[in-house]
Amino acid sequence: MGEEDYYLELCERPVQFEKANPVNCVFFDEANKQVFAVRSGGATGVVVKGPDDRNPISFRMDDKGEVKCIKFSLENKILAVQRTSKTVDFCNFIPDNSQLEYTQECKTKNANILGFCWTSSTEIVFITDQGIEFYQVLPEKRSLKLLKSHNLNVNWYMYCPESAVILLSTTVLENVLQPFHFRAGTMSKLPKFEIELPAAPKSTKPSLSERDIAMATIYGQLYVLFLRHHSRTSNSTGAEVVLYHLPREGACKKMHILKLNRTGKFALNVVDNLVVVHHQDTETSVIFDIKLRGEFDGSVTFHHPVLPARSIQPYQIPIAGPAAVTTQSPVPCKLYSSSWIVFQPDIIISASQVLSESDRASLPVIATVFDKLNHEYKKYLDAEQSYAMAVEAGQSRSSPLLKRPVRTQAVLDQSDVYTHVLSAFVEKKEMPHKFVIAVLMEYIRSLNQFQIAVQHYLHELVIKTLVQHNLFYMLHQFLQYHVLSDSKPLACLLLSLESFYPPAHQLSLDMLKRLSTANDEIVEVLLSKHQVLAALRFIRGIGGHDNISARKFLDAAKQTEDNMLFYTIFRFFEQRNQRLRGSPNFTPGEHCEEHVAFFKQIFGDQALMRPTTF
Amino acid sequence: MAAAAAGAGSGPWAAQEKQFPPALLSFFIYNPGFGPREGEEENKILFYHPNEVEKNEKIRNVGLCEAIVQFTRTFSPSKPAKSLHTQKNRQFFNEPEGNFWMVMVVRNPIIEKQSKDGKPVIEYQEEELLDKVYSSVLQQCYSMYKLFNGTFLKAMEDGGVKLLKERLEKFFHRYLQTLHLQSCDLLDIFGGISFFPLDKMTYLKIQSFINRMEESLNIVKYTAFLYNDQLIWSGLEQDDMRILYKYLTTSLFPRHIEPELAGRDSPIRAEMPGNLQHYGRFLTGPLNLNDPDAKCRFPKIFVNTDDTYEELHLIVYKAMSAAVCFMIDASIHPTLDFCRRLDSIVGPQLTVLASDICEQFNINKRMSGSEKEPQFKFIYFNHMNLAEKSTVHMRKTPSVSLTSVHPDLMKILGDINSDFTRVDEDEEIIVKAMSDYWVVGKKSDRRELYVILNQKNANLIEVNEEVKKLCATQFNNIFFLD
């Protein structure tokens, strides 16, 4: 264990680039997830690499001064380069268009451009210290058209490409945030909101640092994440992450608080709707899932880490290169070390991860993962069920209230876990079988805890694993406490184990009895064991003896080579015939001629029952 | 009839009659191979109780047993005599390992009567003792020895006859004093395990607890979990668990019951300074974890002696009614640090689990509404999982087993059991006892059920009906033929 327990790993194919130095400048564009390496102001070449690009883009441009910012528009159509604080230069990368650069100066007098963001393939926003300017680029005319602008003092800005929202920091304390939303040539101002700053000593001016803010889409909703180093309430120690929900319409609202319970340097990531907080001091990361239950105090939900803190899987760069990188959000995380690394762990955090990727996680961790998974699974099952009931009750499908529950990626059902996780897991030879069984039982425990009916294939997997290791007594105890639910397939499986473990026969019969729908099977089992009398007594006990096949019982009785037993069984059926039909004789349909002959041969004609005549 | 007066101290004949229960006369272990020549007979004897017996008498008694076994072997080579009935006593023979013989001689119960001239007349009750009961007791003696000492052969390999003799002396000297032959009955034949009834969820929680503990203590090889002196989980194989269970419930737990009953604030309890955060404490090993000189010595046990032959330390840790046995390889010596770690990890969790189990048990009991005892007395035993259930026995203490029925009835149960052993097939025996009781024995697919009914004027059909009813209510979830 120890260093082999990881939840997170870096992307398999990192984007590698030349180390930043005085002649080589490195830029990152969060919208296209591209890294730009600009050598000597572009004169000796610009190399652009994205995470999905097999072939990096490489071009040259004239060295017109130091490059402050460089970004492609969406689909790599237009390149924008900022070299001065007043202007941005453009260059078309569209075939048949002129590749001559053109320049746009910011409209506001005396303003300095802090940066720019592409919001589509031809729309760009300049952020200046005095406001924002929204332009449309007309590449064929090599000019820009101002669509809209807004004046306000800006300290810094942040852009979330997925939601096309720009966040501007205003006021002296930098803690009033003004969001703008961009869509198809329109710019809309959203209600501004204030981030509550933690109480700070009087000597230092409190302010909101850009580094402590992140934006991300979590479960389809846009959130502003604020890393608060000191809790507002003095009684709790440790930093926390405050999540502000930024709806399309309406005001921003503080919704969640993630308790980190530690202090120091942190970095934030959002992966698969999970918030990942990296802690530099301990070189570990913790994971939060805001969909899981937390403590709700009336306005805010408090969350604790889903799982204990773990390190990111140590990463080996395949080819010796200066540094590794790819990213989703522009938070520079030093992967707990000093190299400049931003990473995008784009792998589902799931049980499979914990079991297969990490060599061996500890049981409490596995238990927690199972519980979280099954919590989601149960929620989905319940939603499914109430939907089904509503449909059955005749509510029309078009009713707006009736929505088929959406199965999110967080829902892993039993068959998923069985196919992709557990069945592969039990095959691992190097895994101690004790641990394998413990994990299987942990999953069954978790399902039971959420009152989810356990599918029989899971039980079969448990049995298979136990049998493989000759742990029959363990199996016996599980069955004794009904941990493995009764079912016909399971009872049959047990029957097949009888030769290895004789008590399996009894366990199987008990199970069939409890099922109460398996009386025929019980009779078959008893007859196969030559327990003819027991079978007959059983069927009589449940009142089914008038419908059974005489031939079947007589066959079984004959096979025992016990003449007295045969006599008894034969007499029983003669009496049944008498009672049902008024004659002890068998009807031709019963096909018992052979047995009648056998009876006569052994006991003589006179032993046959005489029809009672009145 | 003797039974009429049995156990009665205030009957009309009380002054004239005195009763003496069966008692252990002698107990010896020998190996005929160790002194085959004349004059060397003494070498055969490995252990002899009582030790005070004169040497020649010891040799004579051993010789007699040898002769009987040898003689009966002529008639039944594979199954020589198991017991010898005489007027005064009964001898039981057992050969647990090749050529090693254990013999137990039990004096028959005695009734001392006052004759007309005032002289006491002793009457031996030759037919009172049940062979199967005492043969089982003898086998148990060996199993218990083996649990704590390993096999005879292993001792021979380790240190020859000398070591074996030492071990036998050390073990049986004390163990024989704890044999209470007067209170042995059917339950000794079964040597069963009482399982704690539990719902699935709580059971899974316990499973999860055990797995986690085994993982975090990582040297634990096997674990057993008991609640209320009843078994819930055994990581050991059935036969080993059977004898360990016997030791725990009849020896270890009763010895520690006093401080438990006293509660945590009582002066007795104060002598074992425990942790304030939980109720956990060691039943074997260190008494006081705060004492730096505390001894971390745990009893050694031997399991799987037929194949892997494992030697283990037995750590028994208890919180309230929940007891866990952690078994670790004997080559690892648990340190005080380990014990402290165990205490800090297991203690709090086991305390919570114990109260969970208690709570859940009460809920289940209320739901099933089985709070009132069934009016039948019954004993149930399943050979397959050794599950045992008795409403006849009120309490099994180390000194005496309290039964709520007359010894005569217990004897009938033993007789029925002997009948069952003779044939393999399922059967049913109904006995009308002298004292208006009906005794019913049923055997179905390796399960045995004995019911005692007190219905004076009931007839056979009614008794049969009653037993059917009992089966339907108490055993409806198993396949039990009626």
UniProtKB/TrEMBL annotation, chain A:
Gene Ontology biological-process entries: autophagy; regulation of autophagy
InterPro entries xrefs: RMC1 (IPR040371), RMC1_C (IPR009755), RMC1_N (IPR049040), WD40/YVTN_repeat-like_dom_sf (IPR015943), WD40_repeat_dom_sf (IPR036322)
GO cellular component, one term: lysosomal membrane
Major subcellular location class: membrane
Domain Mic1: 350-588
Kinase as UniProt keyword: no
Compartment list: Late endosome membrane; Lysosome membrane
Keywords for this protein: Autophagy, Endosome, Lysosome, Membrane
Keyword flag Membrane: yes
Pfam families from the UniProt entry: RMC1_C (PF07035), RMC1_N (PF21029)
Residue ranges constituting the Regulator of MON1-CCZ1 complex N-terminal domain according to the UniProt record: 26-144
Family: Belongs to the RMC1 family.
Protein's job: Component of the CCZ1-MON1 RAB7A guanine exchange factor (GEF). Acts as a positive regulator of CCZ1-MON1A/B function necessary for endosomal/autophagic flux and efficient RAB7A localization.
Protein name as annotated: Regulator of MON1-CCZ1 complex
Source organism (scientific name): Pongo abelii
UniProtKB/TrEMBL annotation, chain B:
InterPro entries tied to this protein: Ccz1, CCZ1/INTU/HSP4_longin_1, CCZ1/INTU/HSP4_longin_3, CCZ1/INTU_longin_2
GO BP annotations, alphabetical order: vesicle-mediated transport
Signal peptide: none
UniProt domain CCZ1/INTU/HSP4 first Longin: residue ranges: 25-150
GO cellular component, one term: Mon1-Ccz1 complex
Domain spans labelled CCZ1/INTU/HPS4 third Longin: 372-470
Record domain CCZ1/INTU second Longin: where: 220-346
One Pfam match: Intu_longin_1
Family: Belongs to the CCZ1 family.
Protein name: CCZ1 homolog, vacuolar protein trafficking and biosis associated
Organism: Pongo abelii
